[in-house]
């Protein structure tokens, strides 16, 4: 019976593993989300900024900040295209994390983010269970691996868009060069032909 309970506990931890979220930032706007934390819990947010237009290879930036339950800005990062930020809760309450596009009028900003963290367990507390601590640690490591994989997928997509845009420009530049060379060759043939023509004077 105890083995069944342990198996159920492990499966429930894996079932609540966070998945990547996507949010579109409006021009001169921001999007905020919140998590309820207890004292000494850790909140970690990893994010990547991209474009909803697959043809756009430009790297966009946003502002990111975390607000405490008292309304104070605990963490603020400006002009970031990606990040992996974390804080430890000082008090119990609702902590907000926000993605801001308030400085620009970009209409196609797309933010992919993962939220994960660590629930604090005092191992010296006689009421704490070492199995719970091990499961929480395993959940944390699994979330970290998943977040890193999601980050790499977004970076690969951004770099692929940049490479495709560069290849397209190189292709059209090559076509332009071929046209210039062909036009120059035709002109030289025509000019040399006129130069060597024999003109009879009657």
Question: What is shown here, in short?
Answer:
With 202 residues, this protein is α+β, with helices and mostly antiparallel strands. The protein has helices spanning 2-15, 130-195, and strands at 21-25, 30-37, 42-51, 62-67, 73-80, 82-88, 93-100, 109-118. Helix 1 (2-15) runs parallel beside helix 2 (130-195).
Structure description:
Residues 1-19 have low confidence and may be disordered. The chain has helices at residues 2-15, 130-195; strands spanning 21-25, 30-37, 42-51, 62-67, 73-80, 82-88, 93-100, 109-118. The chain has one domain: GOLD domain (Jelly Rolls, Sandwich), CATH 2.60.120. It has 202 residues and is an alpha+beta fold. The protein has a four-stranded antiparallel sheet.
Query: What structural category arises from helix and sheet content?
Result: alpha+beta
What CATH first level would be assigned?
Answer: Mainly Beta
Q: Tally the structural domains.
A: 1
Largest sheet: 4 strands, antiparallel
Order of helices and strands: HEEEEEEEEH
Estimated helix fraction: 25-40%
Subcellular location: Endomembrane system; Membrane
Family: Belongs to the EMP24/GP25L family.
Keywords: Membrane, Signal, Transmembrane, Transmembrane helix
Protein name: GOLD domain-containing protein
Topology record:
Elements: H1 2-15, E1 21-25, E2 30-37, E3 42-51, E4 62-67, E5 73-80, E6 82-88, E7 93-100, E8 109-118, H2 130-195
Antiparallel strand pairs: 1-8, 2-7, 3-6, 3-8, 4-5, 4-7
Helix pairs in contact: 1-2
Family: Belongs to the EMP24/GP25L family.
Signal peptide: 1-20
Membrane topology: Single-pass membrane protein; Single-pass type I membrane protein
């Amino acid at each position: 019976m105890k083995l069944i309970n342990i198996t159920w506990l492990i499966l429930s931890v894996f079932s609540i593993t966070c998945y990547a979220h996507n949010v579109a930032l409006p021009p001169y706007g921001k999007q905020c989300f919140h998590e309820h934390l207890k004292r000494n819990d850790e909140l970690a947010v990893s994010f990547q900024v991209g474009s909803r237009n697959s043809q756009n290879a430009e790297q966009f930036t946003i502002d990111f900040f975390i607000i405490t339950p008292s309304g104070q800005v605990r963490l603020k990062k400006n002009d970031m295209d990606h990040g992996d930020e974390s804080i430890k809760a000082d008090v119990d309450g609702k902590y907000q994390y926000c993605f801001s596009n308030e400085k620009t009028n970009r209409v196609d900003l797309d933010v992919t983010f993962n939220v994960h963290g660590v629930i604090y367990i005092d191992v010296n507390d006689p009421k704490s269970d070492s199995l719970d601590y091990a499961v929480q640690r395993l959940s944390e490591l699994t979330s970290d691996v998943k977040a890193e994989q999601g980050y790499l997928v977004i970076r690969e997509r951004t770099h692929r868009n940049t490479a495709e845009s560069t290849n397209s420009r190189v292709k059209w530049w090559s076509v332009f060069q071929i046209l210039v060379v062909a036009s120059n060759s035709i002109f030289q043939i025509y000019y040399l032909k006129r130069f060597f023509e024999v003109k009879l004077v009657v």
